[in-house]
């Protein structure tokens, strides 16, 4: 088995708690909590279903693979060993680019809306709005640039802020319900429907993937074989609670139809924090600041891991220049790839600002779908690679194993892959399955833009990424071939 060469200058500093904190910081998404809650009571039902039928098998197979193959680059290495470099390059491109797209689209829009509504007014499309979004993007990038030995504490603080804000909000919502009655739950409608399922499945899958992300820093873990399975299990349980309980709290307090994706969490906080009387506004401001900090560190957590994956692809000869894969000799971080992520996020933010002529809700929904699509598409290769490694490389020691051996691993992998295929299709072509099954679907009412605008943005992004990935691979391959030919035809000694 051949794996990419190890990276020099890396220092092992990630303990079990650090791995778990990075997972929590990266996976629990404030920006999707409102989007999930907008699905009503059945969102709770589908969270429970997907937690059992998707998250559990997902955690099992990634825990085994992450412990058995702990090399730097994580999923890039897995796909490269299983299916070869071209497949790994394409997969990593989609995995990596999701994060600057997400940072420059969904995360920064939610953060700006919270800051504008609860801290200081920014307006929409103003100089202050642009300045805030640029500062947010580059603060997230700079926290990924610092050495992991120090940067891990930033993501740990973000994970703590996230759990603290969600716990405080949930506790306040319970107190509000005890005082005013849980009226929102009466009309929430927990019975599952086909329309609700197809609307929620992509965003719920997006909310629950990513626990393998810390494996991108595998050579910086102290004991990955021992710590990865435990960290995935604990962070998965925390994530389930951090989605299920706040969504229930939002539904219990907010009237039906009032919850929106872009403002759901903070709008519900404004309502339930009324129990604090005159203290509501300072408490809201405090929670809004926690909210923005958590969003920022969530972006930086993903940059820490995804930029390492893409840097490994570049260093391995799969993306334009090997120089993009260089790790800073002192910091031990892929600074050039970090900066490329920042530029990409900035460009995408500017494009998103002009997508729907200032309609923040429509912009949020479409750019979040772009991020969902690119990430889920990457798992179309990552998940099968786990099974390929299990079947082809039985000689590799596996400190942790999925129950029932290869048969259990195979069933779990096929189940996870089926969910990913479904989520990818629904995210890329919304409304098509509804039409196939005769379910009602008004595209403009759902998305706030026409299908042409939506598909131009989503399919156009996917097509552009495919072109960039292929160009990056072929460019580096041509350079390598030319260099090898130059050596062969050089002067004889």
UniProtKB/TrEMBL annotation:
It holds the Pfam family AA_permease_2. It is a multi-pass membrane protein. It is found in: Cell membrane. The keyword ATP-binding does not apply. The chain crosses the membrane at residues 19-37, 43-63, 102-123, 130-148, 154-178, 190-211, 231-252, 283-305, 337-356, 362-389, 409-432, 452-474. GO terms for cellular component: plasma membrane. One of its GO terms (molecular function) is transmembrane transporter activity. Its main location: membrane. Keywords: Cell membrane, Membrane, Transmembrane, Transmembrane helix, Transport. InterPro entries: AA/rel_permease1, APC_superfamily. Signal peptide: none annotated. This is Putative amino acid permease. It comes from Streptomyces glebosus.
